[in-house]
Structure formats: structure tokens, C-alpha cells
């Protein structure tokens, strides 16, 4: 039996034996292309709205309306929030969902003589109708506000995350870049949710010793680690991953529970692979006649997913059977019950070994529920109902709840880790993507140098223009730092798009830097770039990118000596129309 | 939404249930006409320069057993260094990795170094012998006689342990507790015997100061430099003031210690320089390569060895003095069979002998 921690408070909820912390991490890369009438990659957002965010909101609100008590922890990253609140993308989503409604009506006609598929077409028609109404009318196109209300009502604890989901263990070669990712992310959270965040989601759970200090300086109280990040902490955590530890900085680290993760993530043993569940890879966008489906796929005739899928997983076979929603729903109920049963056994066992109530931390990508695993939202709803209705062993809680009950915890320094493949940084330092970081390192040092050199208040048109260019340079750098680009390159999916995006942002950053240092800023071009990369409108690059003297030398970035002393020759060239005469007159 | 694939690694060691995401699409944006845009053409292209003409070196801990390095050396700095090295002096650009360890006095000393010839711009991975190590790197010119002129130095980085800590003492913390010191020890532990017990928590336990905590955690702690666990800011050897031949050692340890780290570093207890003028050094590397059935996995020392599609594998490692055990295990794709091959490689301690008159025969 582990000895008591001193001064442990009596927990608020004494009837239960342990806590379950369900964490949903919602993130998408910032994709917005006003220069095109439609853009394929914007569909990532539209699919997620229809298949994940709206269903999750529906689950939460049904549970709330039926007076179920639940607590979820969520992260909504700045790129996702920005896109969800962007009027252009909102309008395009309505166009997208209207097109899907139209398709589902055609499907109703096409499948009229095929009862098995006709009722599925009816199902999709209902889903798309509900989605359109909910988005446009119920939520007034603002899903972020809906999540905000749930937080205010006490059902959700939304945490902050990095500005553009930068993978910090590799960005850490430039401490000012790390601090900027964190600070901009937290500032964005404050302006979105009107409060300070208690917790922070590290992208990919990427942690290295010292990172907690940066979080602590920004007021963060906890973050989540992968299992081995906590298990390999120093000294050994006495409670394994079933209680947090405090880093030496005083910030708490919670560890992911592998048992609960395996039941959902595992391709061999996890629920989503059940034969009754809907097969993701059989979509009518790839199966039906091209002329029929053409209006609903890419204008150039590129087949894409539509979201209408008629087959179930069936098994390890290419001969899929028609999807049966009632059977799938029943499986979701059974799996939710199974999950709760297993967590109950787990908590009972742990509680018998520990002198405090254990906390089981179960983080997942939010997009798993509904998009990858169609029945995922149903499973979540069954799970909450199961926990709430029939037993008191487990209580849903957030990390803040646990820290309120247990303010005294063991001190240990976690190990560098991530939840990526093989548990460290190899996925983001792969031959397919490791070429990025030299450019990011240089750009990060350059940004820190410029933020320091041009830190005087902007008075007068010239310095105001310089400050605008600086702030835009900061945005471009943050967008280039997104971990989505190396992730896509390694996974081998939309590699040309990710490569183009990275080069574009770094290129724009370098050009802005050249213009700032030469004192000649193309205001017309700047204005257009500001409209394109429309994120972090209130960014103050000086406060975010200048080295922070409060930090110890290990966490502080310094002005790169090269940038302090000499101008940098242009290392990129933009192939674009030259600025007009008027633009050249606007010398800064 | 093709960005996401399931890629969570469970502690049970299961691989990622990677879903082969959406089919690739051609470069549709290249062929589409954008909306009217007079200023920012959709054909905006940026070509990243191979070199930014700056000088730096960065190291990243990739995993417990490997580092990743990337660097950029400006042509101007390289020319100036080469000029300083002297005309006619043939030299090559190398990246030297130093592995540090806490010496007996508590200061940092070099356990091992290894060099790799590099281009002026690039990146690469380095496989390591052990987990939980501390390293820094330098890029510079190495002459044929072995002298090394560093041009850029990386911050110090540490690789994580691959397993659990061997320290088990309990230190409790209450961030909202009284006083500045937030951590306190409840259980007496030899590891914390040095803690000044005059400051007490209300429970009576000894309070740990921030200094004591850093000392507890620093792998290369010394009184003069208590923050060695974490990376320092980059200390470039600024162009125009680059290190001289026989420059003073780069001091990482405290001012009152005897051991130093630097270009005249000592390792293995042997000195590379005897009294005399001839400079001569030796380094060794080990290449381990083999082959197994395609799809099988190979393990060595608790870490997985990357295996090519054809089942071949190759490891390049520095070879220090002493004996290096090599026990590799191959596991079949269906995990029903495994085989282990065991051997060892020994490098004898290095003798540095001086000969007069140029004879190599002693």
C-alpha cells in the first residue's frame, strides 16, 4: 500500500472509487483559400463539422437536457476555432451541406427499388438535413459559441493548445518559437473563451524537460503526457499513470492510460474495427458512375469522399455487406457497456492498491468520433448514460477536478516523449520531412531578432506599417511551424499540398523580413497576404516573439547575432507580378 | 479529411492502427484559374534557398538512442576559417559530437566524441550507444594532422531514458503551499541527505529549495552551472572571432573545477597530446549489418533496429574503448519465431606513444 500523501483533502465526491477523464482533442490544420471558388482541402473542415462536431454537440446537449451529469475535457485549437468562425468558410460549409442534401435526394431516387440501401439513403438525408438546420439555425453558424456555453454550464473544461499545433520538441531548438506557440495559443484562448485556461494540450503530447517551465510561466496548471512520459519520470511515479505528478516547475502532468486507449485505438482489439460498424473506405464518391456523381466531387472529376457510405466492415474481406444502422447502434451500446465495465474493474483494482482515488486519463482525437468511427458519438452517449445511470464506482472528471481534490502530489520530472509512432520524435524527424527544420530554425531566430530590433511603439505611418509587416511575418512563421505539414509528408497523403503550404509560409516570412530590414514594404502585397492568412488578427509579435527575460537561460531565446549585425540576403524569390508604381511609392 | 490517421502508440507496444488515408490527388490547384487577383497570383511560388548563409548547428533528441542534427555554415565563415587555418593546409568540414558525463568532481567531462565529414549545409541522424545521454556538437574544420577549429556549437541536449528511473524516493509538492519552496521531502532518503533541513513544511518535512531541486535533477551539475540538464541558448562562435588553434577549453564546468570540455578534451583517461608538437588522434566506428526475413523486426539493447524492406539492416555507431556487447534478436512478422545472435567487440585502451626521428617502429 502506498503511503499517504500529506495534507490530502477529503474528496468532494466520496461515493465513487475513482475518476475517468475523457479528453477530446479537436484540431485541423488552417486551410482557407479565398483565391479559389472551391478548394479540396477545405473539405476536411466540412466533413468534420458534419460528422464530428455537430454530432458531439448533439450528444452533449441531449445529455444536458436529460440532466445527466458529465464532465469532458476538450481542446479546440486556434486554427480550428478560427476556421469555424470564418464567415467565408461558414458560407462554404452551407454550400457543401446543401450539395450533400441534394445528393442524398438523388440517392433516394436511385435506391428506391433497393430497400437495403434506400433506408441508408434516408438516414443520410436526415443526417444532412439535421446538420444544415443545426448549423445555420440552432447554432447560428457559431459552433465555438456552443462549446463555450457548455463550458460555462460546467459540462466541458476546454483547454488551450499551441498557436498552430507546432511540435514543440523539435521547435525547441529555438526557445522563442516554443514560447510564441504557447503564448499565442493561450492569448487566442483568452480572447475566445474569456477566461484563463487551466490546462494545455501539447500537440502530439510532445514533451521535453523544461517545457513545463514555459507553460507554468504562462499560468498553465496541467498538461497531458503519453504513458511512458510519466512512467519513465524521475523519480518513479508511485501511482503509475493513475495520479498526476508535479514537474519541478509546479505544473501537473497527467499520463495517458494505455488500457482504455487500446480499447478504442487498437486496430486488433479496438471497438472501431467491429464488423457491424460502417466501413470508412467504401464511399459512393469512388463507386458510382462518374457522370452521376460528378456534380458532387471535385470539379475536375477527381473522385473524393462524399460521406455517403453504404457498407459495413464485415471482416477481413473485400466483399462488404450492406450497413445495418440498428445493429451498429446496438454494438455501440454493448461496447460502451464493456468499456465502463472494464474501467470499473480497473478502478476497483487500483483503488485497492492506492491510498487515493485513481484517475484514468483517456485522450482521443475528437475526429475519431464520427468521422473515422461513424458510431463513435453514439458510443460516447451510451457511455455517459451508463456511468450516470447505474453505478457509482466511476465519476467523470477533468484534470482540474482531480487537482482540486488532490492538491498535493508527487514531484517528478517526466521523460521526453510523444504519443506518435514509437513514442518519441521520429515521425516528425523522418527523411520525408526533416528538411523543414533548418528553415524553421533560421526563421525563428530571425523573428526573435526582428521582434527585438523593432520593438519600439509604432507611432507614425512608417513604424505602423513596419509593425503590420512584423505581425504578418509572425503569422507566416506560426503557420509554417504547424506540425501538420511534416505529419502529412510522413504519412504520404497530400504531400504536394503540405510542401506547397510550408514553402509558401516560409517564403512569405522571408520576403516580409527582407522588406522590413530594407525599410521598403510593399503595402499592397502585405495587405493581400493579410487577407489570405487571416489568423491571429490581434497578434502582437513583439510580446510573443521577443525573448522573455523572466525565463531561465534554458528556456529563453536570444537574439541571433547574425541578424543583429547584418542584413540577410534574400533567400527566396516570389514569382508574382511586380508591385505597381503606387506600391513602390509607399516606402516605409 | 485526409490529414488524420490513427497514430497512437499504446504502451503495450502495439503499432499505430494506421489507416491508409485517402487516395492521393493530383495538383489540382495548379490548373485551376483563381478568382481575380491582381496582386497575389495563385502561381505564387517560393523556392527555399539551400543555404541561408548563416552559421549554426542544432541538435535534437530524436529518441533515447538517436540524435538529429541540422546545420548551416555560411560560405563566408568557411572561407575565413580556412584562411585562418593556413594556405596549403588541407582540411575537411566535420561535425563532431561530444558525449558528456558527470566527472568525479561533479563537473562535466567528455566521455566520447565522434566525427562525421559533412557538407556545409545539411541534416542527419546519429545512432547512439546508450539512452539518457547528454551531448553537444560542433561543426568545424579538421586538418590532416588532427587539429580541429570549431565554427559553430550546438546547445547541449539530453536524450531520454528508454525505461524507468532507478530513483524511487518520494518528494511531495504543493504548488499552493506556504513559502517560496513548494517541494518537501517526507521520506528520508540518502539521495536527499544533502538537503538543508532547517526549512520545514508544516508537516515537519524538510523543504527543498529550487537549488536543491535543480541539483537533484541535473545530470551534469556543478556549483557554477546548475542548469546543465537543459539546453543553453546557442553559443555561436561568431565569425571573425572563431577559435584559435589550441584555444582555451570551452568551459562548461564551474570555475573552481579542474576538468574542462573543449577542443583539448580528454576521454578514456588518455591524453591526445603529449609534450611535443606532433598532433595525432584516432577514432573508431563500428558498423553492424545483417539480414533477416522481410517483415521481421530486429532488436538490440531494448531498442528496435530499422530494417529495410528486403530484410537488411545496418547500424553505424561510435566505438569507444572497452567491450561492446552485441546481442541482437530478430522476431518474425507473425511473432511466432525469434532468434538471437550474440557476440562482442572490444577496443583496447588507447596508447599514445611518442617516437623520435619519425620512426614508427618504437
Secondary structure topology:
The complex is a heterodimer of chains A (588) and B (362).
Chain A: E1 18-26, H1 43-65, E2 72-76, H2 78-84, H3 87-110, H4 115-138, H5 143-152, E3 156-161, H6 168-171, H7 175-193, E4 199-201, H8 211-217, E5 222-225, H9 227-231, E6 245-246, E7 252-255, H10 258-265, H11 284-287, H12 290-293, H13 325-353, E8 359-365, H14 376-390, E9 394-396, H15 399-405, E10 409-411, H16 436-453, H17 460-480, H18 484-491, H19 495-518, H20 523-532, H21 541-545, H22 561-565, H23 581-585
Parallel strand pairs in A: 1-2, 1-8, 1-9, 2-3, 3-4, 4-5, 5-7, 6-10
Antiparallel strand pairs in A: 6-7
Chain B: H1 28-31, E1 56-63, E2 66-72, H2 75-85, E3 91-102, E4 108-117, E5 121-127, E6 134-143, E7 148-153, E8 157-158, E9 171-173, E10 183-185, E11 206-208, H3 210-217, E12 285-291, E13 297-300, E14 303-305, E15 312-318, E16 322-331, E17 338-347
Antiparallel strand pairs in B: 1-2, 2-5, 3-4, 3-6, 6-7, 6-8, 9-10, 10-11, 12-15, 13-14, 13-16, 16-17
Fold and architecture overview:
The complex is a heterodimer of chains A (about 600) and B (about 350). By secondary structure, chain A is of the alpha/beta class. Chain A has 23 helices and ten strands. In chain A, strands 1, 2, 3, 4, 5, 6, 7, 8, 9 and 10 form a ten-stranded mixed beta sheet that branches. In chain A, strand 6 and strand 7 form a beta hairpin. In chain A, helix 1 crosses helix 3 and helix 1 runs parallel beside helix 14. Chain A is globular, with a radius of gyration of 25 Å. Chain A starts with 17 loop residues before the first strand and ends with a helix. The N terminus and C terminus of chain A are likely disordered. Chain B has about 350 residues and is mainly β. Chain B is built from three helices and 17 strands. In chain B, strands 3, 4, 6, 7 and 8 form a five-stranded antiparallel beta sheet that branches. A four-stranded antiparallel beta sheet of chain B has the order 14-13-16-17, with no helix packed on it. The N terminus and C terminus of chain B are likely disordered. The interface between A and B is large, with 133 and 105 residues. Strand 10 of chain A pairs antiparallel with strand 9 of chain B, so a sheet runs across the interface.
Amino acid at each position: 500500500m502506498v503511503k499517504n500523501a500529506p495534507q490530502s483533502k477529503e474528496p468532494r465526491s466520496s461515493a465513487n472509487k475513482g475518476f475517468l477523464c475523457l479528453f477530446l482533442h479537436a484540431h485541423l490544420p488552417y486551410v482557407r483559400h479565398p483565391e479559389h471558388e472551391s478548394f479540396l482541402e477545405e473539405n476536411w473542415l466540412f466533413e468534420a463539422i458534419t460528422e464530428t462536431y455537430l454530432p458531439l454537440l448533439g450528444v452533449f446537449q441531449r445529455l444536458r437536457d436529460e440532466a445527466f451529469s458529465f464532465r469532458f475535457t476538450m481542446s479546440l485549437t486556434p486554427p480550428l476555432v478560427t476556421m469555424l468562425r470564418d464567415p467565408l468558410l461558414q458560407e462554404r460549409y452551407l454550400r457543401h451541406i446543401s450539395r450533400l442534401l441534394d445528393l442524398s435526394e438523388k440517392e433516394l431516387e436511385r435506391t428506391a427499388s433497393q430497400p437495403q440501401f434506400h433506408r441508408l439513403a434516408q438516414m443520410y438525408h436526415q443526417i444532412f438535413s439535421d446538420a444544415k438546420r443545426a448549423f445555420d439555425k440552432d447554432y447560428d453558424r457559431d459552433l465555438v459559441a456552443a462549446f463555450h456555453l457548455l463550458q460555462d454550464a460546467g459540462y466541458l473544461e476546454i483547454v488551450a493548445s499551441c498557436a498552430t499545433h507546432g511540435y514543440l520538441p523539435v521547435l525547441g531548438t529555438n526557445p522563442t518559437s516554443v514560447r510564441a506557440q504557447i503564448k499565442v495559443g493561450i492569448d487566442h484562448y483568452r480572447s475566445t473563451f474569456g477566461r484563463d485556461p487551466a490546462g494545455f494540450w501539447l500537440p502530439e503530447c510532445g514533451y521535453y524537460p523544461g517545457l513545463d517551465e514555459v507553460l507554468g510561466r504562462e499560468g498553465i496548471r496541467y498538461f497531458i503526457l503519453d504513458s511512458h512520459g510519466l512512467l519513465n519520470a524521475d523519480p518513479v511515479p508511485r501511482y503509475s499513470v493513475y495520479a498526476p505528478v508535479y514537474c519541478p516547475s509546479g505544473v501537473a502532468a497527467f499520463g495517458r492510460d494505455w488500457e482504455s486507449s487500446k480499447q478504442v485505438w487498437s486496430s486488433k482489439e479496438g471497438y472501431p474495427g467491429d464488423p457491424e460498424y460502417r466501413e470508412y473506405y467504401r464511399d459512393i464518391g469512388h463507386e458510382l458512375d462518374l457522370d452521376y456523381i460528378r456534380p458532387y466531387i471535385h470539379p475536375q472529376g477527381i473522385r473524393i469522399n462524399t460521406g455517403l457510405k453504404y457498407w459495413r466492415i464485415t471482416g477481413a474481406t473485400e466483399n462488404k455487406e450492406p450497413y445495418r444502422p440498428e445493429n451498429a447502434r446496438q454494438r455501440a451500446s454493448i461496447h460502451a457497456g464493456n468499456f465502463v465495465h472494464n474501467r470499473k474493474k480497473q478502478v476497483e483494482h487500483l483503488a485497492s492498491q492506492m491510498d487515493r482515488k485513481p484517475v484514468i486519463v483517456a485522450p482521443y482525437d475528437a475526429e475519431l468520433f464520427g468521422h473515422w468511427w461513424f458510431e463513435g458519438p453514439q458510443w460516447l452517449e451510451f457511455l455517459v448514460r451508463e456511468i450516470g445511470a447505474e453505478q457509482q464506482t466511476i465519476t467523470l472528471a477533468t484534470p482540474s477536478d482531480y487537482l482540486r481534490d488532490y492538491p498535493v502530489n508527487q514531484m517528478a520530472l517526466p521523460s521526453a516523449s510523444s504519443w506518435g509512432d514509437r513514442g518519441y520524435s521520429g515521425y516528425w524527424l523522418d527523411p520525408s520531412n526533416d528538411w523543414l527544420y533548418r528553415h524553421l530554425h533560421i526563421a525563428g531566430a530571425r523573428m526573435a531578432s526582428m521582434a527585438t530590433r523593432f520593438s519600439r511603439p509604432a507611432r507614425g505611418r512608417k513604424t505602423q506599417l513596419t509593425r503590420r509587416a512584423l505581425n504578418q511575418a509572425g503569422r507566416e512563421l506560426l503557420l509554417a511551424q504547424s506540425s501538420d505539414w511534416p505529419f502529412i509528408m510522413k504519412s504520404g497523403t497530400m504531400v504536394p499540398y503540405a510542401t506547397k503550404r510550408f514553402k509558401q509560409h516560409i517564403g512569405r516570412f522571408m520576403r516580409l523580413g527582407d522588406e522590413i530590414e530594407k525599410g521598403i514594404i510593399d503595402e499592397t502585397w502585405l495587405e493581400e497576404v493579410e487577407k489570405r492568412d487571416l489568423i491571429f488578427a490581434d497578434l502582437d509579435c513583439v510580446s510573443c516573439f521577443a525573448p522573455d527575460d523572466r525565463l531561465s537561460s534554458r528556456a529563453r531565446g536570444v537574439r541571433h547575432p547574425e541578424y543583429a549585425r547584418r542584413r540577410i540576403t534574400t533567400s527566396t524569390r516570389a514569382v508574382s507580378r511586380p508591385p505597381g508604381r503606387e506600391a513602390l511609392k509607399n516606402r516605409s | 479529411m485526409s490529414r488524420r490517421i490513427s497514430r497512437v502508440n499504446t504502451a503495450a507496444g502495439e503499432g499505430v492502427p494506421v489507416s491508409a488515408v485517402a487516395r492521393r490527388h493530383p495538383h489540382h490547384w495548379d490548373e485551376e484559374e483563381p478568382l481575380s487577383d491582381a496582386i497575389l497570383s495563385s502561381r505564387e511560388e517560393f523556392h527555399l534557398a539551400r543555404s541561408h548563409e548563416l552559421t549554426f548547428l542544432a541538435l535534437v533528441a530524436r529518441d533515447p538512442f538517436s540524435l538529429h542534427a541540422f546545420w548551416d555554415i555560411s560560405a563566408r565563415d568557411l572561407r575565413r576559417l580556412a584562411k585562418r587555418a593556413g594556405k596549403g593546409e588541407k582540411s575537411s568540414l566535420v561535425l563532431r559530437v561530444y558525449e558528456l558525463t558527470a566527472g568525479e568532481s561533479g563537473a562535466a567531462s567528455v566521455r566520447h566524441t565522434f566525427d562525421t565529414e559533412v557538407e556545409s549545409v545539411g541534416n542527419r541522424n546519429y545512432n547512439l550507444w546508450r539512452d539518457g545521454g547528454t551531448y553537444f556538437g560542433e561543426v568545424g574544420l579538421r586538418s590532416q594532422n588532427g587539429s580541429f577549429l570549431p565554427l559553430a556549437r550546438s546547445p547541449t541536449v539530453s536524450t531520454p531514458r528508454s525505461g524507468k528511473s532507478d530513483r524511487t524516493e518520494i518528494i511531495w509538492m504543493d504548488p499552493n503551499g506556504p513559502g517560496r519552496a513548494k517541494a518537501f521531502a517526507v521520506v528520508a532518503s540518502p539521495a536527499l541527505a544533502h538537503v538543508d533541513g532547517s526549512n520545514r513544511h508544516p508537516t515537519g518535512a524538510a523543504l527543498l529549495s529550487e537549488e536543491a531541486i535543480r541539483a537533484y535533477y541535473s545530470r551534469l551539475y556543478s556549483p557554477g552551472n546548475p542548469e546543465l540538464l537543459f539546453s543553453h541558448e546557442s553559443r555561436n562562435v561568431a565569425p571573425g572571432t572563431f577559435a584559435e588553434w589550441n584555444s582555451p577549453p570551452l568551459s562548461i564546468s564551474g570555475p573552481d573545477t579542474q576538468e574542462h570540455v573543449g577542443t583539448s578534451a580528454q576521454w578514456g583517461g588518455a591524453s591526445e597530446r603529449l609534450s611535443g608538437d606532433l598532433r595525432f588522434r584516432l577514432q573508431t566506428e563500428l558498423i553492424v549489418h545483417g539480414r533477416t526475413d522481410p517483415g521481421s523486426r530486429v532488436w538490440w539493447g531494448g531498442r528496435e533496429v530499422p530494417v529495410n524492406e528486403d530484410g537488411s539492416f545496418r547500424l553505424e555507431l561510435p566505438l569507444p574503448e572497452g567491450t561492446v556487447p552485441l546481442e541482437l534478436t530478430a522476431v518474425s512478422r507473425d511473432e511466432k519465431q525469434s532468434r538471437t545472435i550474440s557476440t562482442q567487440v572490444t577496443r583496447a585502451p588507447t596508447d599514445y606513444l611518442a617516437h623520435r626521428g619519425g620512426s614508427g617502429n618504437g
